[in-house]
Amino acid sequence: MLASDSARKFSFNRLISNGDLVIVYERHDIMKAVTVSEGSVLQNRYGVFKHSDWLGKPFGSKMFSNKGGFVYLLAPTPELWTLVLSHRTQILYIADISFVVMYLEIVPGCLVLESGTGSGSLTTSLARAVAPTGHVYTFDFHEQRAGSARDDFERTGLGNLVTVGVRDIQGEGFPDEFTGLADAVFLDLPQPWLAIPSAAKMLKQDGTLCSFSPCIEQVQRSCEVLQISFTDIRTFEVLLRTYEVREEKLEDDGSNGSLPCKRKQCSDGGNLISSPISSVMARPCGEAKGHTGYLTFSRLRCL
Questions:
Q1: pTM for the full predicted model
Q2: 159 among annotated binding-site residues
Q3: Which fold would CATH assign to domain 80-239+291-300?
Q4: Which has the higher per-residue pLDDT, 302 or 301?
């Protein structure tokens, strides 16, 4: 799980034990989060896997089923958790998340405010970025959704780094207790411009803000409000193109000008054609994700 050791640093060097959360990896597009429980089994198309066989194994182990099939037991890093978590809302994915963490200048020890929590995809990465001495305070107006996110953070071992609150940030703003204390603020709201004045009060001098919006009209209205208290206003759209790289065998014998097969020398001096040459091919994946949203960054203007 995403738990920390006695030095409060993330570590997956220990062995898997009863109650741990692991990511069961079947292939790059089929993964599942499983809580290890002695006496339980996992059954999939590769066979039956006993949890008891997993105990004492290091993360990354290759485990075999009763049929000889296998899976890998991976540590639930924020990147993998984003791919397997329950979607209560539309989530941010790795390309946008990495951009947010970098441009908000989030480092260990930072205090970060987030609204809204949603499914907690970004929150998990924010928590790792501020660890071991920082903290993320995340808010969602939906009480049941906030409760589910809180349970997920406890499940992944982030309870000491994340505090979930139920609050309508658009209508009420952030709690006054954070005034002037936040290093960064992230907004994922339908009307972010309503929360920007409150966010400005929460930030330290030279603090940074990011607003995620799916529509350019939201960005335009937000930028109008940002100009009052913020500077260095920038908007980005992150588009990710994934490539599929795999080995393919070339069957042609070379007579048509293509690459020949490998040949062996026989004892009588003749040539014997062996297996064809393998070549690594790369091509864009047929299903490419397009627009997710716009990321608008700004910095609190110094007085």
A1: 0.80
A2: no
A3: Rossmann fold (3.40.50)
A4: 301
